[in-house]
Q: What sequence folds into this?
């Protein structure tokens, strides 16, 4: 790791409050997150105390209503907070994005009674959430999920298995999509399930290429009883709720990707300025200078793209196509930038002594989660040319 401090991004923020907020986030990242990131990722330690700190600081409910403990920040600001957190440690930045995703259904589709009962603790009470859509046989084809919820008086009984659940086994609550009707997207309903519900168990976390500090696990629902008061939205509305959440969540992944890419560029630039060969810093050599220039350009373009989509969302305009574009471009950019960062460092870049190899491993998963980049291309093409002819 270089001795240079990370570059401070020149951000265009809408208010003085948002500028103070970003300054607070940078301070927390520098003091509490970045120093332990490499060690804790290497050992696979989940930083639960960091999420408690972020909750106490009001950073787990930023895009939600102040009425229920949220920060009432526009997505334009919230996403830049995610970027700063992900630059310090992706486990934290992506974890905040997943938590926000888990709150989205209740915040957007719950009744006032449900929101008043649950949102304050979810947004600022130290709780951590997870989002349960994918299954072993239903990933990209999420509408084919088979986890089933059956009505039993005033309760629902949930049986099935969810897969690839970030925070699986450590979350305090889960937003769960389950089948309550016929096959297809119209037969799916959303539920808010407590993390300690009887019959809910987590498998051993997956052994992953990167993000080893973030537990990803299957969840097994064996007769999990949930009262109807924890049903989110109407019966059969779950897939609509899921898609709305994913549009917002894709912007979170895009911002995290740019954070990872920015961290990689900072490391590569610091190394290039310090490392000397043939009597000169390697940053003097044109071939390497061009690499750095291309890396920086990809980052700036990605940041502009996700912020443009966020501003559409903040204005109440359609943003699904732009969210897919941002997720696609930013995660592909992160993969390219982190790979180039390893190349800039040469042999050192391939060792665990420098963070760029970890950043490259982490960047890969961002091209997969919240809809693979092949799915993003399908979404974009459907907006352009309409549904495929079958």
A:
């Amino acid at each position: 790791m270089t001795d240079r401090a990370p570059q401070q991004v020149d951000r265009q923020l809408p208010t003085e409050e948002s500028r103070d907020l970003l300054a607070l986030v940078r301070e927390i990242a520098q003091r509490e997150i970045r120093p332990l990131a490499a060690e804790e990722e290497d050992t696979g330690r989940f930083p639960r105390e960091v999420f408690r700190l972020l909750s106490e600081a009001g950073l787990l409910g930023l895009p939600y209503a102040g009425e229920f403990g949220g920060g009432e920040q526009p997505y334009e600001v919230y996403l830049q907070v995610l970027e700063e957190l992900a630059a310090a440690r992706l486990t934290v930045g992506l974890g905040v994005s997943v938590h926000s995703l888990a709150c989205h259904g209740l915040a957007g589709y719950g009744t006032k009674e449900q929101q008043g009962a649950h949102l304050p603790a979810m947004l600022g009470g130290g709780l951590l959430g997870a989002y349960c859509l994918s299954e072993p046989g239903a990933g990209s084809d999420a509408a084919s999920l088979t986890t089933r919820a059956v009505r039993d008086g005033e309760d629902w009984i949930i049986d099935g298995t969810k897969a690839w659940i970030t925070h699986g086994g450590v979350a305090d609550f889960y937003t769960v999509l389950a089948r309550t009707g016929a096959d297809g997207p119209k037969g799916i309903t959303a539920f808010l399930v407590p993390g300690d519900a009887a019959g809910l168990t987590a498998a051993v976390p997956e052994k992953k290429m990167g993000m080893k500090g973030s537990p990803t696990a299957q969840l097994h629902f064996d007769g999990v009883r949930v009262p109807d008061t924890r049903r989110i939205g109407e019966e059969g509305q779950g897939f609509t709720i899921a898609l709305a959440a994913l549009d917002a969540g894709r912007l979170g992944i895009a911002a995290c990707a740019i954070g990872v890419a920015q961290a990689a560029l900072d490391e590569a630039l610091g190394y290039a300025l310090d490392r000397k060969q043939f009597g000169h810093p390697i940053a003097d050599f044109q071939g390497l200078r061009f690499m750095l220039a291309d890396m920086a350009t990809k980052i700036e373009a990605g940041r502009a793209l996700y912020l443009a989509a966020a501003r559409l969302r903040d204005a109440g305009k359609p943003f699904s196509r732009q969210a897919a574009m941002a997720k696609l471009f930013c995660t592909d950019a992160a993969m390219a930038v982190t790979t180039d960062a390893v190349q800039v460092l040469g042999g050192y870049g391939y060792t665990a002594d420098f963070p760029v190899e970890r950043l490259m491993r982490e960047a890969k998963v961002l091209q997969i989660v919240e809809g693979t980049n092949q799915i993003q291309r399908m979404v974009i093409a459907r907006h352009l040319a309409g549904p495929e002819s079958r």
User: Anything to note?
Assistant: Residues 238-274 form the longest helix (37 residues). The beta strands are 129-132, 148-152, 155-166, 173-179, 188-194, 200-202, 216-227, 231-232, 276-277, 280-281. The chain has ten helices and ten strands. Residues 36 and 175 are 30 Å apart (CA to CA).
